[in-house]
Amino acid sequence: MLARLQALARTLKADLHALSIAARDPRTPWVARAVAVLVLAYALSPIDLIPDFIPVLGYLDDLLLVPAGLWLVRRLIPPAVLADARAHAAAHPARLPRSALGLALMLLVYAALLAGLGWWVVRRAHAGG
C-alpha cells in the first residue's frame, strides 16, 4: 500500500513538472494555460484551501483537487504538446519549488472568496430585514 502511494506521489510530481513545461509551450491553448497556472499555483502553494492540520479533510483537498485539476488540464492540452512536455520533464528532472506566485494566487482566491461571502451575507441581511 505504501509503495503504491509513493508511486502515485512520484507520478503526480512528474505530471506537475510536465504541466509546468506544457503551460509555457506556445502550442498550448490559452484556456489550458490558465487552468494549468491555477492547478500549479494550488499544488505548489505553501497554503491549501483546507489546512492540512484539520484531520482527514486537510489532506482530502490535496487528494482530490490536484488530481482533478491535472485530469482537466490533460484533457485541454493537445496530446502532442503533453507528450513533448512529459519527455522534456523526464529528460530534465527538477525539484518542484514552493511557488511565490502560487502563494499570491491562492491569497487572491481566498480574498475573492471572503469578499464574495461578505457580499452574500450583507445581501441576505438586507433582504431579510
TrEMBL record:
Bilayer topology term: Multi-pass membrane protein
Key words of the record: Membrane, Transmembrane, Transmembrane helix
Superkingdom of the source species: Bacteria
Primary residence: membrane
Subcellular location per the Swiss-Prot or TrEMBL entry: Endomembrane system
Keyword Repeat carried by entry: no
Domain DUF1232, chain residue ranges per copy: 32-67
Membrane-spanning segments: 30-47, 100-122
Keyword Iron-sulfur in annotation: no
InterPro entries: DUF1232 (IPR010652)
Entry protein name: YkvA family protein
Organism lineage string: Bacteria, Thermotogati, Deinococcota, Deinococci, Deinococcales
